[in-house]
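Researcher: Re-running this chain for the archive, since the previous output was lost when a drive failed. Same request as before.
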Amino acid sequence: MPRNSGGQYSLPTGNPVTTATAISSTWANNTLTDLKTEMTDSLSRSGKGAMLAQLQLFDGTVSAPGVAFGSDTNTGFYGGTADVLKLSVGGGDVMWWSPNASRLGGTAPAYQLEETDAAADNKIWDFIATGEDLKFRALTDALVATNWLTVTRTGNTIDAITISATNITLNGYTPTITGGLASLTGDNAMSGANTFSGVNLIEAADALWRWKESDASANNKFWQCRANGEQFLGQALTDALAATSWIVVDRTAGVIDLVNFPGTAVTVAGTLGVTGTSTLGAVNAGVMTGTSFAGAVAATTLSASSTVSGNGFSTYLASPPAIGTTAPAGGRFTFAHTAPVVVTWNATTMAVDCALSNVFTIAMTGNVTSAMTMSNAKDGQTINVFITQDATGSRTMVWPASFKWPGGTTGTLTTTANAIDLIVATWRSATSTWACALTKDFK
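Model: Regenerated structure tokens:
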């Protein structure tokens, strides 16, 4: 018959057998079948079969755990406290778990993490409590430890947090640092709002301070200030940290030699006073009034819609310097120059952006089967397109429908290997056409 709730087995009816009782097949079969059933329901010491219901263990104590080892009876797991599992090693508590906490115990308890995918001597990390300190450490494979963070306490008061690292990045944390920092060396990153009081020194061979605006669009997030040799630079960076300077300041000791704004455009609101020798780059569609220049003014370029007036400009424009593209009143042309732009060959999607230059080059490496696109042309703009055959030659070109030819005869490229042809084309906005002429086979 089955075991009772305490696990005790009782023989079936007809047992025990009294002396001189005849052994019948019914008694024998019933008794042996019952024994077979209960033995099948028993747990094999050699691991044959698994439990079919909950296995309840002896609670045990710290010195005699309920689940221990035959050769080490004071090491194992024990219970005794509701909803708490404890681990005893050598008769002492080393770890326990509750529904909402885990705790290490012992003298200088440490918890190690091993990342088996990491390279040699980079696998093991741990944190250890020693006295009043909590230390986070990196360990070699031989368990030689280096502290990278140490927290010191008195009671529940944190006295100090010490970070020992070549580079420190604070991301998503808003620290307030008072009393001043002696120095920040190497690469340091902080995100969020940070307050510094006192004197703070950033020290490195190429010291910089970088900002990241996480709400900005791609390649518009990063700015930085940089001290490099005798220069101070304000820079804008792409997401790949490619830097473009918008201000460059040169110094000799405590003297500022030059302040340069190398950006595409500089807007000055209000009165601009310039002393010493000044260099102005391109002034595009702007108005400069009330502007004072003392000393020499180097050559500048003014666009057609630029207006200049004020103290200093009357003298400047009376004897104007060389002016490149468009002359304002009183200015003069001395030369014109435009750098050639290479048009990347493509059989079907070749494109010419007329805003980039008036001179373009195309190296033919195959036939152009779809007409190239022409964009950003200005009325009356004339462009020169040099077309060079490769060593194979006989490359052909499909022209845009807007190309119009003398007498209506479409231009045909020279087919000789390495031949050079020149197309000269002028854009007419009124008819949306290019007036084209092809000069062939320059030798």
